[in-house]
Amino acid sequence: MMIKELKMKQDYDASNDSLFIYAAENHNYKESLEVSSNIILDFDEDYIPRAIEILGASKILNINKNSLKHLSNVDVLVDVSEELVHIKASFTVSNQETIGKPLDVKTINDLSLPQLQAHFELGKV
């Protein structure tokens, strides 16, 4: 199974309550997978996860909008198996406290994505 470590950046749009976490390096977009009604995972042409968008982020993560503007670290693990795509994430603000509730969502791997694990970390940028 391939394991990929990715340096990430983030952008939070408070007016739309949308958190976008994306790969710092350039890549060629291939397609998106709707993991849940509010969580979208983007893949590159090699089917490496390169971005995650969380719509309604403050509600889903139980984090106030001001804290989402000041994240110091986001730690995301994407685990793609033959059957499932599983995303786990935690969020930290500048005072080093993990905030909100961790993200833990799964969906069927109906795109026949190759098996891999990808680890995104915002703090490594």
Structure description:
The protein is mainly beta. It has one domain. The protein is 8% helix and 61% strand. The chain is globular, with a radius of gyration of 14 Å. The two termini are 25 Å apart.
The global form is globular
SSE string? EEEEEHHEEEE
**How many E strands?**
9
**Helical run tally:** 2
For the largest beta-sheet, the strand count, sense and barrel status come to: 9 strands, mixed
Strand order of the largest sheet: 3-4-5-2-1-9-6-7-8
Percent of sequence in beta strands: over 45%
Brief digest:
The protein has one domain. Helix content is 8%, strand content 61%. The chain contains 2 helices and 9 strands, in the order E-E-E-E-E-H-H-E-E-E-E.
Give the SSE map:
Layout (H helix, E strand, L loop, with lengths): L1 E12 L4 E6 L5 E8 L2 E6 L4 E7 L1 H5 L3 H5 L1 E10 L3 E10 L4 E11 L7 E6 L4
Can you give keywords for this protein?
125 residues; single chain
